[in-house]
Design a protein that fits this description.
The chain has 244 residues and is mainly beta. It has two domains: 18-137, Jelly Rolls, CATH 2.60.120.10; 141-242, Jelly Rolls (Sandwich), CATH 2.60.120. Helices cover 2% and strands 50% of the residues. It has one helix and 25 strands. It has one helix spanning 126-131; strands spanning 11-14, 21-22, 33-39, 47-53, 57-64, 68-78, 84-86, 89-93, 98-103, 107-113, 117-119, 133-137, 144-145, 156-163, 170-176, 180-181, 185-187, 191-198, 200-201, 207-208, 212-216, 221-222, 225-226, 230-236, 240-242. The strands form six sheets. Strands 2, 3, 4, 6, 7, 8, 10 and 12 form an eight-stranded antiparallel beta sheet that branches. The radius of gyration is 18 Å and the shape is globular. The N and C termini lie close together (9 Å).
Length: 244
């Protein structure tokens, strides 16, 4: 049986060349942030988007009711406890955390936020934030073989940041070895990734280059190939369904 690929609703944008708009502040006040929404609406602060922080800018103290995850694509960001987040760092914050950030020199982020966020007042609750924060830099991360590949699949490695090894759901770093292809699979939820290094090719000939941000909605069917190898940071919102 031949299964046709499906790319309906696919979005591709490169963070180095996209257009930027003023970020709609959650509290309606002034902001020194700009954004490019990939799959997000103004107002609640959730969804998938690119965020640019101007030098000296940052985010007010805010609380997360769901996961917050982002990649520092360029520049540096300082977290509320003074931790310096540098280019290449991949972050995951658990629900219930609150923090504020600042960027003395400016930075660009790829952001995934699960649920609406709220600006808050009071204590930063640093200990809770630290306990619920994961940090790894993709350039120095340890990779191991992806745990649920079919026996006939090409070798693909991963670094589990916050993901379920059985379903693939969550945040992970994926490393394609040169010439490797993923098995044909269907997404039951959104898959969204940023190409950090190298390139990927989908069966329709679309090439995802370094810096590309890709959003694939539920129902997408594909099998990607990386002729020269690549590394991506990916969030998967529903179990993957292998088709061959």
């Amino acid at each position: 049986m031949t299964v046709a690929c499906n790319f309906d609703g696919r979005i591709v944008v490169n963070w180095k060349s996209c257009d930027w708009q003023p970020y709609p502040a959650i509290d309606g006040g002034e902001t020194d942030l700009k954004w490019h929404p990939v799959r997000a609406e103004p107002g609640p602060g959730d969804g998938t988007y690119l965020l640019k922080v101007a030098p000296g800018g940052g985010a007010k103290l805010h609380a997360h009711s769901g996961q917050e995850e982002f990649v520092v694509l360029d520049g540096e960001l300082i977290d509320g406890d003074g931790t310096v987040l540098r280019t290449g760092d991949v972050l995951s914050y658990d629900p219930g955390t609150r923090h504020r950030t600042r960027s003395p020199k400016g930075c660009t982020l790829m952001v995934w936020i699960e649920k609406p966020i709220d600006t808050v007042e009071g204590d930063d609750e640093i200990a809770t934030m630290q306990a619920g924060r994961k940090i790894v830099n993709w350039k120095t991360a340890d990779f191991t073989r992806y745990p649920t590949l079919p026996e006939t699949a090409d070798p693909i490695d991963w670094h589990n940041v916050r993901a379920d090894p059985e379903t693939g759901m969550g945040l992970s770093l994926i490393k394609f070895l040169p010439g490797s292809s993923s098995s044909l699979h269907e997404h039951t939820g959104y898959e969204e990734f940023v190409v950090l290094q190298g390139s990927l090719v989908d069966p329709d000939g679309t090439v995802y280059e370094t810096g590309d941000v890709v959003s694939l909605p539920p129902g997408s069917i594909h099998a990607t190939t990386s002729p020269n190898g690549c590394i991506t940071a990916v969030v998967i919102e529903g179990p993957l369904k292998t088709l061959v």
